[in-house]
Amino acid sequence: xxxxxxxxxxxxxxxxxxxxxxxxxxxxxxxxxxxxxxxxxxxxxxxxxxxxxxxxxxxxxxxxxxxxxxxxxxxxxxxxxxxxxxxxxxxxxxxxxxxxxxxxxxxxxxxxxxxxxxxxxxxxxxxxxxxxxxxxxxxxxxxxxxxxxxxxxxxxxxxxxxxxxxxxxxxxxxxxxxxxxxxxxxxxxxxxxxxxxxxxxxxxxxxxxxxxxxxxxxxxxxxxxxxxxxxxxxxxxxxxxxxxxxxxxxxxxxxxxxxxxxxxxxxxxxxxxxxxxxxxxxxxxxxxxxxxxxxxxxxxxxxxxxxxxxxxxxxxxxxxxxxx
Length: 324
Ligand code: SF4
What we know:
This protein has 2 domains: about 5-190, HUPs (Rossmann fold); about 220-320, no CATH class. It is about 35% helix and about 15% strand. It has 11 helices and 11 strands. The model has no long low-confidence stretch (mean pLDDT about 95). Bound molecules: iron/sulfur cluster. Iron/sulfur cluster binds near residues 80, 191 and 193.
């Protein structure tokens, strides 16, 4: 009987190659990917489909939020707790491995590809912290690492695993041709926790409110963000698509101009009346009022009140309150 493994799938080329190399070494492979408000499983879904393998999608939101609150190994360049996040993903995958009676977990990591997170020491930390010692296979660099249990047991043919290292992509491109892999996204990107602008919003939420409320975290992906002097935050739609997504729930305040085109604003938790006045002025300052004679009328929900906001509407006034 073939050995069975779960391979972590980002959808990028290395994670696709890892699957094919494992299959060539004698394994039956299913993929695992993770979803959260910070990264989407869409690319992994497409890649698993192209590879013709089963994909298991695991909701990782609570895990990654707990790591942002308290990252044991700190953050990368932004608010990305990569070492801990990676260990936690492998730990979750390991739980599924035990539950389903699989033999190993694999990743598409390449030694030395990312100097901070994919050197021998970091790879060792991830293996130790994930609690999967001996069961974590890195098929693209396996020959540069200690043999794992499935290799020692002869379930995975070590000779068919690889010894890629460093940042060059030549061998991966060559292997992609060999395996007939034609579509793959660029190796970088995809995680909002590495984006500076997004992380400014995340830090603001962490400092002023809470990351425990999933909806507040999900709203970070939408619009411009302001923190007003009274402590209220305002999410201002950038375009029609954002405006449509800014739907209020109980306790929220929504503002939108009535007599000219302009953005919708969502105030998730209004702290004071002065902030409401400012939020209405903010909406006006981003509205298209060139052809309007008179003042902009702003509708405020849930009160249902519509109020005229007197000119002038000065966008610069809000620069100091803008997070992103
Ligand atoms: S880039 Fe994002 S998803 Fe990937 S390990 Fe780092 S924090 Fe986790």
